[in-house]
Design goal:
Length: 160
Amino acid sequence: MSNTTSFENSDIMSDYEPTDVIPFINVSLNSPNPAPQWPTNNRFNVQRRSIEEQIFLALITGIQTPLTIVGNLIVLYSYITTKKLQIYANYFVVGLALVDLIAGVFVLPVFSLYFINGIWVFSEQLCEACKFINHVVVLASYLFTLVICVDRYQALKYPF
């Protein structure tokens, strides 16, 4: 009697090895402690860039990230220190500045390295966390922008 299952004997799987059943994680079923190993050609790779492109992108993102952080800190500082700015209509602008500050601190530096290098150099957990933060921040930014537009429309349509 054979040790193989009917699944392994099927014509569909005849060209595959046991490690190919799970395409994204390479697990050796014959080793005593099968440990997953991320493949070298994983989905995080993108086209490698030339050194000139990397320098150019590093300059652009090296300017963009600090400007994002400093600009949003200026907005928050102005709101906190100036009493005339502390009105209901500016709550949404402050919310937008906070969301953009979170993006500038947590998302832009990490994704800039990925964009410049063309390969993800961090763990998959950090990738998933950054993607989650990025999606939440972008959605919140869209919603704050929508609320600001509606608020400004209401202020123009019904001034008093």
